[in-house]
Amino acid sequence: MTDANAQAPRTSLFAPDARTARRNNSEARFRLFGLISVTIGLAALVMLLSSVLFNGTSSFRQTMLELPVTLDAKVLDKKGNRNPDDLAKVTTIGYGRLISDALDKAITDNGIVVDGLTSKDVKDMISKEAPAQIRGRVLANPDLIGQTVSFQVLANGRIDGYMKGRVTLETAERDSNVSVNQLHLADALHEKGLLDMPFNWLFITAPDASELRPEAAGLGVAILGSAYMMIIVLVLSLPIGVAASIYLEEFAPQNRITDLIEVNISNLAAVPSIVFGILGLAVFINFVGLPQSAPIVGALVLTLMTLPTIIIATRAALKAVPPSIREAALGVGASKMQSIFHHVLPLAMPGILTGAIIGLAQALGETAPLLLIGMVAFVRDYPGAPPEGFFDPAAALPVQVYNWTQRADPAFVERASGAIIVLLIFLVIMNFVAILLRRRFERRW
Amino acid sequence: MKTAMLTSAIAIAALSATAASARDQVQISGSSTVLPYATIVAEAFGENFDFPTPVVEGGGSGAGRKKLCEGVGETTIDIANSSSRIKQSDIDNCAANGVDAIMEVRIGYDGIVFASEIDGAEFAFTPSDWYNAIAAKVVKDGAVVENANKTWADVNAALPAQDILTFIPGTKHGTREVFDVKVIEAGCEASGAKAAFEADGLDADKECLALRTDGVSVDIDGDYTETLSRLSANKNAIGVFGLSFYENNTDKLRVATMSGVLPSTETIASGDYPVSRPLYFYVKNAHLGVIPGLREYVNFFVSDDMAGPDGPLAAYGLVSDPELAATQAMVEAETPMGPLK
Q1: Which positions in chain A touch B223 (Cβ < 8 Å)?
Q2: pLDDT on residue B20
Q3: ipTM exceeding 0.85?
Q4: What's the fold here for domain A220-441?
Q5: Do residues A156 and A405 touch, judged by C-beta distance below 8 A?
Q6: Smallest CA–CA distance from A281 into chain B, residue
Q7: pTM reported for the whole predicted model
Q8: Is residue A183 within 8 Å of residue A159, measured between CB atoms?
Q9: Among B8, B48, B305, whose Cβ lies nearest the Cβ of A235?
Q10: How close, in Å, is residue B201 to chain A by CA atoms?
Q11: Nearest to A240 among B8, B52, B316 (CB)
Q12: Mean pLDDT, chain A, as a whole number?
């Protein structure tokens, strides 16, 4: 007690003593640490998002040339009978010449003069995808032959880069794939309104493209592949997961085996996803003999990955339903099954759905297991309609990002970031739906 | 709940039923160096033929050959791309799994270039410069010593006095094999290190390939885009790239000469540029005529329109094979490859 006497006597309630000050200080420090942590987290998020948006937003616009192309019947239909088989014999090389002629004509018609421009320079302004675009249009509608039709065709990736500021006159001098003259020509065409940057629908709908035509690469196959996988994952994992959790939560006897299963489900949720990929390769492809690169295999692997998440979420949701509900149902004569399906399950539904959607969102962004089952492939054909389409080769969104970051042409950097934006949009939508469901159907007791 | 159960049951049933359905597209796997060329051909093939576009996957030469040799049938791939020649072990593995006839198709040549940041100094290398810069043991004043060279000027007074830092392909890459043979081994011999190792009674082949482990030579296990980003972060470094990658990024990279020759499709085709290698793909003959489009794809790949000196592959950086006509005839006749020489 001598210590207490040594302390200065408390004079005011407003001036805290040393111990209180220490405690207050430690709280202030803790708050500061918390604030710093949040700031670091936010800064990381902002950095990530801004770099993705900075690199990627330009991929949603694409440089296009507006050209009146004369579809010369002498070139496209030598026999003059409009027979689809004969028309298909004209390759993209034949169409390529038509387009470069059209561009030549447009340049002279508009009185554009650029010094030192070779005919190869002019030809290389156009994407190598353009002949295929026009060939597809003509084969679909042979009546176009003989007419002069205005087409919107893709411009070369370097020209696109120039319009977006990725390529400059200085870099063009050192770049063997584009000449300064071509950039001057692009400026002149832009001035005359022949070269424009509309919204890039092709980025969403077109399939992947080779390194010679980065401007044509799109996410169509990847989006379809991801959608197919999500459908199968949902159809398989939701019923299995919910049935398993209902049994474990409501019916299973409390014994060693049940405990063991429960522990293993929790462990399964922590298994690295690549392990599921190895399993998928060994079981689904090598043993069952399912095709490579197919959404069905990807979906089965992702289902295995999602199941533990759904089971854990569902069990938590079932546990949160108060026992009084079950007892009341049993009390008025319902069977156990009826009490669960008529009363407990509907009340647990928001939690279950939230868990399922978060599990799906996780599966949508998963890359590692898909690398092992051949979904990194270059796939240009759209998979067919389900259910056969589930067995056709397809890509997946996160894998497409991985794929594009490895390509040599700098234009793919922009496209990879664009693909990340698309993937993020899907993830945000899914999480938003999860929040909405919870808000709407949640009941409190 | 009942309907959900039913749908899942149907899905599982459908799964087992359709698994046996025929594959109608060509499947290709293998080297990531050959991958861009294969995608270019696949794209043009899908555009101009009535067959579906082949599915092309990367993963590495060795992995591709292993997959090719897994057996015959629809669940196995048809073609393995490879940036190095098939090995006897692969052929044995193939034979053990019933893959007897394989066709070896050489599509052309690829050069390996040494490049620095565009604003960096000019370099003119020889293989011995590289050996003396990054090998673990070098010959100094007639004696074998641990490599202590710090700058390129220490290696060769004609080079800039810039710290040695190199990004070379990791050991899983086919490119590394070529780098080892054409640069490090050649340099080992030219610099006199090999003779010195032999004189000291060391295992010369092994000692020649041992590289420094003090951080001056960094193995890149990713692809060239990783090397490029590492170069942008370390302006003093020298990276190893494929010719086609360099040609797509000439605005960012400054290429060095090797033994006085500037790499280009011309100097590689003429054989003047020393660091080049043939690129191959291997076709499973048993699948020809079974998988629709496979025969046509292989013929289309080696046609003059594609692999010729004016074709799109050459435009991307492939050095076209002067003996392409022989390859075309071989593909036409579907001649399987003989034993390795």
Answers
A1: 406
A2: 40
A3: no
A4: MetI-like fold (1.10.3720)
A5: no
A6: B75
A7: 0.84
A8: yes
A9: B8
A10: 44
A11: B8
A12: 88
- Is residue A186 within 8 Å of A162, Cβ to Cβ? yes
Domain boundaries, chain A: 2-57, 61-199, 220-441
Mean pLDDT of A83-103: 82
Inform me whether the C-beta atom of residue B288 falls under 8 Å from chain A C-beta atoms: no
Partner B contacted by A110 (CB < 8 A): no
Residues of chain B positioned with their CB less than 8 A from the CB of A407: 36, 225
The candidate with the shortest Cα–Cα distance to B83, out of B211, B258, B253, B223, is: B223
Reported as a single tens digit per residue, the pLDDT across A304-342 is: 999 999 999 999 999 999 999 999 999 999 999 999 999
Domains and CATH numbers, chain B: 18-110+279-333 (3.40.190.10), 111-276 (3.40.190.10)
Disruptive mutation site among A212, A221, A304 for chain B (greatest number of B CBs within 10 Å): A212
The shortest C-alpha distance from B185 to chain A (Å) reads 29
Residue B58 to residue A388, Cβ atoms within 8 A: no
Say if the Cβ atoms of A374 and B223 lie within 8 Å.
Answer: no
CA B298 to each of CA B43, B45, B79: distance values in angstroms, whole numbers, following the listed order: 13, 10, 9
B62 has pLDDT over 80 = yes
Q: Quick check: helix, strand or coil at residue B232?
A: helix
Q: Is B47 in contact with A92 (Cβ distance < 8 A)?
A: yes
Summarize pLDDT for A240-277 with one digit per residue, the tens.
999 999 999 989 998 999 999 999 998 988 889 899 98
Which region holds residue B100: left if phi is over 0, alpha if psi is between -120 and 50, else beta?
alpha
Q: Span A72-82, mean pLDDT?
A: 79
Q: How confident is the model at residue B298 (pLDDT cuts 50, 70, 90)?
A: very high
Looking at residue A146, its pLDDT comes to: 84
pLDDT at B17: 43
Q: Rounded to the nearest 5 degrees, what angle is found at the Cα of B268, between the Cα atoms of B264 and B273?
A: 90
On the question of pLDDT at B13 being above 50, the answer is no
Query: What residue type is assigned to position B59 of the chain?
Result: G
Q: How far is B63 from chain A (nearest CA, A)?
A: 12
Q: Among residues 216-235 of chain B, which lie with CB inside 8 Å of chain A?
A: 222-225
Give me the pLDDT at residue B16, please. 46
User: How would DSSP label each residue in A373-389?
Assistant: TTTTSB--SPP-STTGG
